Amino acid sequence: MQEVVSAIVEWLGSPQGFSGRRPPPYGWVWVVIVAVWIGGWLAAQELRGRKKLLNSQTTLALIDHELSATALVDMDETLTKHSARLKFDQQAYVLDVKVTSSTTKEKLIHARLATLPEVEAFLSNETIFILSDFKASPSASDA
Predict the structure, then answer these.
(1) How far apart are CA 100 and CA 82, in angstroms?
(2) Which residue of 38, 70, 101, 122 has the fewest CB atoms within a 10 Å radius of its CB?
(3) Is the Cα torsion angle 132, 61, 140, 99 positive or negative in sign?
(4) Over the stretch 28-42, which tens digit does the pLDDT of each residue have?
């Protein structure tokens, strides 16, 4: 047993063959690299699971009623109101966004998208919202 432990300790402290131009990594560096890789993979799996859960909760909520989001943005001392509604209608997600400001003309965005990933991409590219901003309106959740 002592021989195994000493062999492992010797390997962890010895350089593993690399070119002579830069110092080779030691055995403990490989252990750290593998640990970081495994930690990153586990974190990615957890995030993938959370995203699937959010998408399924959003889909279930959209079956019952529409979701909405509102944001007030202060840019250059001008208050701008962004409001959006998301609903599921005839096998498509319908997104309506309205941007109002005291200094500019009202901007309306209407989009019909086939999947929630398309909705997410559209929201992040064209609006200030993300999918998790959308909530059921209080009147709809009381019904």
Answers:
(1) 7
(2) 38
(3) positive
(4) 888 888 999 999 999
